[in-house]
Design goal:
homodimer, Dna Ligase, domain 1, 4 domains, 5-stranded antiparallel β-sheet, Glu_cys_ligase (chains A, B), glutamate--cysteine ligase (chains A, B), ATP-binding (chains A, B), nucleotide-binding (chains A, B), ATP-grasp (chains A, B)
Chain lengths: ~750, ~750
Amino acid sequence: MLNHLGKQIQKFQRFPFLYEGQFGLEKEAQRVTTAGELATTKHPASLGSSRSHPYLKTNFAETQTKVVTDRFSSIHKMYQQLQGLDAVLTQNLAPTERLWPLSMPPQLPADQTIKLTTVTAQKHAYRKQLIAKDGLKQQMISAIRLNFSLPTRLLLVLYEDHYQDKYDSYLEFHNAAYLKVAQNYQRYRYILTYLFGASPLAETNFYQSGQAKPAKLVRSLASSQKYGYANQTASQISFASLAQYVQGITTYVRQGKLANSREFSVPVQLQGRKLSKLTSEGVTYLELSNLELDPFTLDGISEVDLDFMQIFFIYMLILPSMPQQKLTSILQLAAEQHEQVALEDPTKASTLQAQLTEFIQEMQKFSVDFAAPHRLQIAVKRMAERVIDFKKTPAYLLSQQVSQQSLSQFAVKQANAAYTQQTQAVYQLRGYQDLSLSTQALLRAAFQAGLQVEVLDRQDNLVKLSYQEQTEIIKQGSLTSKDNQLGGELSANKTVLKKLLGAAGFAVPMSAEYRTQATALTDFPDYAKRGVVVKPRRGHSGAGVTVFKLPPKRAAYAVAVSTAFKFDRTIMVESFVAGSQYRFLVIGGKVKAVLEQIPANVVGDGRSTIQQLIEKKNLTRGEKQTKPMEKIPLDGATLANLTQQGLQLTTIPVRGNLVYLGDTANPVTGGDAVDMTTDVDVSYCHLAERVAAELKLTVAGVDLFIDNPYKAVTDEHPELGMVLSVTNQPSLIEHLFPYFGEAQPVAQQLLQFLFPKAFH
Amino acid sequence: MLNHLGKQIQKFQRFPFLYEGQFGLEKEAQRVTTAGELATTKHPASLGSSRSHPYLKTNFAETQTKVVTDRFSSIHKMYQQLQGLDAVLTQNLAPTERLWPLSMPPQLPADQTIKLTTVTAQKHAYRKQLIAKDGLKQQMISAIRLNFSLPTRLLLVLYEDHYQDKYDSYLEFHNAAYLKVAQNYQRYRYILTYLFGASPLAETNFYQSGQAKPAKLVRSLASSQKYGYANQTASQISFASLAQYVQGITTYVRQGKLANSREFSVPVQLQGRKLSKLTSEGVTYLELSNLELDPFTLDGISEVDLDFMQIFFIYMLILPSMPQQKLTSILQLAAEQHEQVALEDPTKASTLQAQLTEFIQEMQKFSVDFAAPHRLQIAVKRMAERVIDFKKTPAYLLSQQVSQQSLSQFAVKQANAAYTQQTQAVYQLRGYQDLSLSTQALLRAAFQAGLQVEVLDRQDNLVKLSYQEQTEIIKQGSLTSKDNQLGGELSANKTVLKKLLGAAGFAVPMSAEYRTQATALTDFPDYAKRGVVVKPRRGHSGAGVTVFKLPPKRAAYAVAVSTAFKFDRTIMVESFVAGSQYRFLVIGGKVKAVLEQIPANVVGDGRSTIQQLIEKKNLTRGEKQTKPMEKIPLDGATLANLTQQGLQLTTIPVRGNLVYLGDTANPVTGGDAVDMTTDVDVSYCHLAERVAAELKLTVAGVDLFIDNPYKAVTDEHPELGMVLSVTNQPSLIEHLFPYFGEAQPVAQQLLQFLFPKAFH
């Protein structure tokens, strides 16, 4: 009855709905040594319990890592999480370990030395059964499993538009649609095996003793019925109807031929909350297990492959149904075709080239006729190229890497390359680079700690973290619901902040406030005798701030005033306070990290010009907060600063000579952040904690001016620690990646504060 | 030694410091009936206990109200608070009562019928003593007392610049400066009496039986030694030195001639924390009691008079000191001059015209030479005009209002006029009109409740309220520290809000989100069949929102999309939901008020055009939230709306016919807010409370779409109450001044939530 479903979609112009849906992924990979041998160590302890971790688990063997994504409304979002999880997993490996990039396992030791994961007694019994039936080695193959749901909106409107009279209920229509996809998927899965097959051979010790092995390279050992992980019994289950499907599994489980209703390997499974309720509650997703690890990609699979899987999946819904009476024979033929493609020579064109070509051409037509999004059309094109030219298939490409009947050398090379790439630039988290660095750091720590992660809004850096029943939303890496909404308002208003802190007995720099340039200039005589700081009343990151360490000239003061007015209707003139600026990061009311913030500077090497020294220092720095440290700007302010010192960009400073290039001790203007957490006198930490408490903030960044960090601040001399400013959304990144000194694990500390139960 | 103080200031260019200082004010006024008789009622109960109220107290008699301001760093700020307090006091009077606008009391009943305020036993004894010595009637005169402090910065820098070697300590210099001001103030106080004297006569029953009374009108009965409230004993206290001053008072108190060291009436008093410590701790301010109530002003005194008092006060510091040996005789002469001016004929030029003229000319010169701020120079000029022309003095002006030996008729007229003015437009609070209306409403309620009020930042609407030890800061009238900082972030992000509320099981309108015009237009076919709302993702007050109640045409939809993109990088298209929009105001987790928000409309009267009806309705409305309701805009949107309905501005609607002029039910676009607090089914209140709780907000505005407010929302039909939006800073003003229906005391309710102890 669903043969004309495509026509209905065309008639009612439901194209956009076709490309919705829900997408999830599981991906296994073996942990190996840098020599490509199976690791003998335990799963990384830094990732906590692999059983309770929602994303980073182990399968079967202790060495078999498993990355499990959440379910997303787009492939792209799912892929982003996959990238982040892969990065975190790799970064938590022992430095001597790598992830094996192939689905087929590395050279295996004897069965008994393969360490299985610790599981419940029941699960243990099931495993023994699996090993007894299919052999342990098959279990060591690493699979990728996709969980795809049909777009609910699409099914609902189709039902309303056309199928209301043809089915007894929406549920029946819904289940029929899923069943159709599952049937067609099996019919055409040889297409996927041709496109994605990536296991031309097995390494030493894979085959059971006495087992015949293929004489030559093949396309997909992993998915072949004969050699792969496919379960013989499971492959006999009928897809003729949902009832028969359920019945089949139930029977085999009862007969002990299947261990349970979930864990068996077939290319496609109909999944719901519970097998016995599948008909009455409805199928919720299909589990597809056709893909193999692609060792040419960093994540074992490329986004374009996944895009293709999405459109292939929905294409199965649009294709005609198979006649019910011919179903068994067609699927039997399909299984044979699949085995034929799986075991054919990957260095030649496919034996089913004509069918492949026809299928992919039809699919291209579909992608255009049904207005598939650009990325899906591109994916079909890309796969069409693989059909046209077998040399573009992963199986062919891998066949070129075989050396001495083994892919080990190649696999180790890829594993090392991936490791290097994943452990570089760890201030970023792959898949989340568009978020602020502090948010990326928080997410990395959350993934590592096994918290559930949801990005609510990328633009706003709003993320939701959960652990068991507890949920916390965090903005910009450090803004949490633990703090009151006035803390930020008061921190942002510098005048009010000073008024309040001054009234509470804290030392704050003397300051005056102006609303017009005229009044600010009238008071100039008052400022002509001391160092002053001219700044907009509200402001971030030192924008519009001018520092006069020495008494300013009238003209320079006037420029500073007019600059500050560009940022706010009210400006402030403060006394310049000698000493250095320090950032105290308060988490849970306690100072967890301290940075000294040193204005932009270079140190002479005796032969480079100041410009060369700046350029060299800038090599590891970024702009607009894309790296933990900002580039020293080669702007007017820097030049003016040099001129004031009688220097030029072409000056060559004496070796070891420190040249300051800026006055504001702000990391955003190219300054250096130096960790002082264990060095600063503890009295300043207590001071910062009291300031945060005064604003009722448990998480805060408190900026103090300190003359001598080793000399305690006292009640008699509060001016030793002047409170400069406070923020309710402190950056985490500089503490994690200081220019000099020890990194502080502040992202993890923030999570510990938010989720004490997750860190027992 | 302080004779050349002015020269030091000129030499070091310390002019700006001269005009700093601290300023406070107390002002008494008698409560009378609309007939001008002393009230017999108690102090208004709505103002709480007059003893513990920080601002609105009573003096001596129960009828004698006393307004006490805080101490401020400028006259202007002090005057703003005075205006607010006067307004609140008047608004809390019984409708049949007024404030007597003169310092001299109204016609008095017999002594024994004057009700005294309830006070402690000790204070009661003192009062009896006062009455016995000076008579009760003198105590019924209403005074204005100014508390002025010299600018501390000025004294500190003067000491550092020049006086460090001339005094043993800063404190000695500081006290000497205050003493000099007090001495000179007494010397020249006849100037003030000329300028501000406003008591030409006394009403019936003022004089004690047998007491001689002036034969004709005078300038200042109130301040005359002979008839006024001056204390005979106190006037003999020596100002020769601070020690003698303290000694004098102490002796008189010991002898029982003065009841205590604080409460006695002399024109100027040196005040500190404690009389016995005055020398060792230093004088903190002078208390000046020269002014009289000015019945020609709304607040009993004008700001320009207070400005003059400020510059007069500082001028006393600059004038030469009196030679110590001639001090007594000079002050004796000054007292005589003062009495002469006080009792001279106000309808003629002063008998001391020559001195007055010389003094004011010198003062004008001072104001220019010492770079006084413009407002102070203006104040001196204004007073110079009074010197030149006695017809500009209050005493002369009052003499013209005397009728039948009484000012009663005039006083009642002025009292009524003031009452009318103070009780109009009560959505505003005088002195605070630049703040948001909700903040003004909150401050009015705070003043009434006897909370301590401090405005931290007018631009940001940040106010600090205190009661006993508790302090709360509030922004924009309703943003408090009770709520977490994420609530607002989540409320502001409509997409995330919907995601969260939807996930928590609340009914939210279906919506899609777009980042480009192209994608929004691609989905048009989907919106061509139903009503939709196109809006920017973030936004306030309906800006950029277009409502299509009926399915839009493509062109109109495109315009709406591009309009929304002007307000945000991301826009949303929502299903249009039928029903009305309601605002639920949650305070302390409970719904305290509900408004139905009706789109802009007019009701036909059968003869006016739509334009006339709009203009009529707009008469009581304002723009940019300066009034509780906004004008209906006569803009393109309104015209387009009429055109859609086949109407024009010139159309004359049938009598009683309701014509809608807008689609968005937002008070900001000219809609009507109708109170429904007691009408709406309570299930919606519970729904709104649950929504606020979901965001952990105790104070919130929750907007719901409700189809039928009398029909309960149920778990089975959550769509009966759709959650549209939430705000963490709800406006209070519409609930206090709805277009129709009962006003809800939400400002007071918010204060009750914040300060439960203040409302027991």
